[in-house]
Design goal:
Elements: H1 4-8, H2 15-23, E1 25-29, H3 33-37, H4 58-67, E2 72-78, H5 107-117, E3 121-126, H6 140-153, E4 162-165, H7 181-191, E5 196-199, E6 205-206, E7 221-223, H8 254-257, E8 263-265, E9 268-273, H9 291-300, E10 306-312, H10 322-340, E11 349-352, E12 383-401, E13 409-417, E14 423-429, E15 436-455, E16 461-466
Parallel strand pairs: 1-2, 1-10, 2-3, 3-4, 4-5, 6-9, 9-10
Antiparallel strand pairs: 7-8, 11-12, 12-15, 12-16, 13-14, 13-15
Length: 467
């Protein structure tokens, strides 16, 4: 029998990856010159004087993010056009040469300060591709330039939870730049060791599309050749892998990893805009995602071992328009009701088919790090039962693995006690990972049983939440 899954068990998250995963749901504020030119992205020659967000209030952005249930915001400090939204000393193509605030404004500082005011994590998006900078395409000279920008961003604006590096490179042969990813990574690790490096980085994997299409089962331990190491080098894909890339629908099952020996912990981020495009466009007002669409996304991302980054696009005036605000506020209100209300699992009597050492079943009631239930290794079909004194009404079960010890569960089934006092299947699932939300038909029952059918060597359940 192929033992690749045992090699996969050796891949574990870093502390920075654990903290990122706990962020769960956060936003990307897409703002800059493209908003003022109605372009999906700029061309590098729009004059800074165009930048004039007359009603901009970053506190309102953060207030909306909190109301929507987000735990952080990432800000587009520099996009492909090269225009910097902070008064950098490295280039004149920046906010300091706009008329806004007489050239004394600093968008990055305003967003960072507002995030901290509202208890949100702050992250930066920065694109190496630069349509304006003349040294782009020169090799080391441009790398020096880009690293100088990174240094400012990572020393002047406090704690950063995420550095989102866009990997797109300019297509012009005369302007092609081979990015020195290893140098960028080393600088980020030195200046902001607690930040994950996302998209083009070794910490967080992009889902592969901007449409919210997700996998049925999302694995965090994946073959090393899917990722990029600290030196910016990718493993060569094995020749026997005729197919398989970051957009494959299965990159972590036993079938998909058969024969592999080297694995990395490379968790998934799903990113997509609230509207059709990342930057504000008046024509996109009919494409705003509905509350139902957002819930589907949430269940398929946060509820399936991923994080969700949702793009928010302030208008030219610097405000997020009413349709977006209304939908996000309603979504956040319902989200709080659905997952922060009465947790009926805390009321029940919990029993398990077996226990390993002192990792007792009652640990699943808590939310304390490194407390979990672990069944005995001789228990081939472990199960945990939660029984209530009276019938309880709920419509979801949330499972969480202790991913500090890896991701192991491959198949499980949720049962409920029906009116005839018989166990009846309510949900069949695959992976759990950091979090798996199991939607159920609204039911009244005196008991829930969860049976773990397939797993990799062992598993640890840190929490079970029933709402």
């Amino acid at each position: 029998m192929d033992k690749a899954y045992l090699y996969a068990n050796s891949a574990l998250p870093t502390i920075r990856q654990l903290r990122w995963q706990q962020t769960e749901f956060y936003g990307l504020i897409s703002y800059g010159l493209p908003v003022f030119t109605s372009a999906n992205f700029g061309g590098g020659f729009t004059p800074p004087s165009v930048f004039w967000p007359e009603d901009m209030n970053t506190d309102s952005w953060c207030e909306l993010a909190v109301n929507a249930g987000m735990r952080g915001l990432v800000f587009t400090c520099k996009h492909y056009d090269g225009f910097c939204l902070w008064p950098t000393s490295i280039t004149d193509y920046s906010i300091k040469n706009s008329s806004w605030k007489n050239g004394e404004g600093d968008m990055v500082k305003l967003v960072a300060d507002s995030c901290r005011k509202y208890g949100l994590k702050f992250g930066i998006y920065i694109a190496p591709w630069d349509m304006h900078e003349k040294s782009y395409g020169s090799g080391k000279a441009y790398d020096d330039y880009f690293c100088s920008l990174l240094t400012e961003l990572l020393t002047d604006y406090g704690e950063v939870f995420c550095v989102w590096l866009d990997g797109i490179c300019g297509s012009s042969e005369t302007r092609a730049q081979k990015y020195d990813w290893g140098r960028y990574f080393a600088l980020i690790r030195k200046l902001m060791p607690g930040a994950v490096i996302s998209f083009m980085g070794p910490d967080v994997r992009w889902s592969g599309n901007e449409n919210g299409v997700t996998r049925e089962n999302e694995w965090s331990p994946v073959p090393a050749w899917y990722g990029i190491d600290e030196n910016g080098v990718s493993e060569e894909r094995p020749k026997n892998r005729k197919s398989g890339d970051i957009m494959s629908l299965d990159i972590g099952s036993r079938k998909a990893i058969k024969g592999e020996e080297k694995f990395i912990w490379y968790p998934c981020e799903v990113s997509l805009p609230m509207r059709k495009h990342w930057f504000f466009d008046e024509e996109d007002k009919y494409s705003v995602k509905t509350k139902d669409k957002l819930f589907k996304l949430y269940y398929n991302t946060v509820g399936n071992n991923s994080c969700l980054m949702l793009g928010l696009s302030p208008s030219k005036r610097g405000v997020i328009e009413d349709p977006d605000k209304q939908i996000l506020t309603a979504f956040g209100k319902d989200l709080k009701i659905m997952f922060s209300g009465d947790i009926v699992s805390a009321k029940g009597k919990i029993t398990a088919s077996s226990v390993k050492n002192d990792n007792i079943a009652d640990n699943v009631k808590t939310n304390i790090p490194l407390q979990f239930w672990r069944p005995d290794e001789n228990d081939k079909h472990p199960q945990i039962t939660i029984e209530f004194e009276a019938e309880e009404l709920f419509d979801k079960v949330v499972l969480q693995e202790n991913i500090a010890g890896g991701q192991h569960i491959e198949e499980f089934e949720v049962f409920f006690l029906n009116e005839k006092n018989k166990w009846k299947s309510a949900f069949k699932g695959g992976v759990v990972g950091y979090k798996r939300i199991c939607p159920l038909k609204p039911m009244k029952t005196k008991g829930i049983k969860i049976v773990f059918e397939e797993y990799r060597d062992f598993f640890e359940i840190s929490r079970i939440q029933i709402n």
